[in-house]
Amino acid sequence: MENEEQKDYARLIAAQNESARRLKIKGITNTLTEEHKKKRGFAIASGICLAGLMVATHFSGIDPNQALQTEIQSLSSFDALKEYLGAFTPAMWGSMIASVASISKYISHKKKYDNANQEFYDMMDNEPKDYQDIVESQAKKR
Amino acid sequence: MFEKGTILTLADDNEYAVVDKYNENSIIYVYLVDINNNSNIIYGKLENDEIVELTDPYELEKVIKQVNINLHNN
Fold this sequence. Notes:
The structure holds 2 protein chains of 2 kinds.
Chain A: H1 2-17, E1 22-29, H2 34-59, H3 64-75, H4 79-86, H5 90-125, H6 132-141
Helix pairs in contact in A: 1-5, 2-3, 2-4, 2-5
Chain B: E1 7-10, E2 15-24, E3 27-34, E4 41-47, E5 50-53, H1 57-73
Antiparallel strand pairs in B: 1-2, 2-3, 3-4, 4-5
């Protein structure tokens, strides 16, 4: 268990230290084949669902499985999404929940890390005289 | 340049659907989903002809919220 936590933490550090993806746009496709239209439909349905899940779990702390059920239910009323949502497999939902958890963990970790980093640099900026009171008080106790 | 629903091919050779795109304070934010691997997503901003993934946690949270509002209200 502890080992798993260490691995998890190592992954977060690695994600944080990775440079942000900076990707040049190589092509823009406006005229789509039927295959492309179908894939795009799945991507959009999945993207809308993931965005809803992200907000429900990260900001409101709702259980991911419960949030997923609510999201599917609410999006099922949209005709344009219905056919795609119905074709998602449990593995695809599972992978979506994993993505949401990973982004959420990254955000929480990065906030804590940036704060700790800032505190460290603030402390390093201090002059020895800033600690004079503490030193004197410690000295008096001896 | 491109609109919601367009498919972009990026430098990693993956094809992404533009699920959302909006402008805030002259910054164009995008939410992209890989059409061949839906768990590969990008919350990013457009800089010239590049998509730059967001890494600042506060900016990321702000964009996640806004994208969700845009998608669930349209």
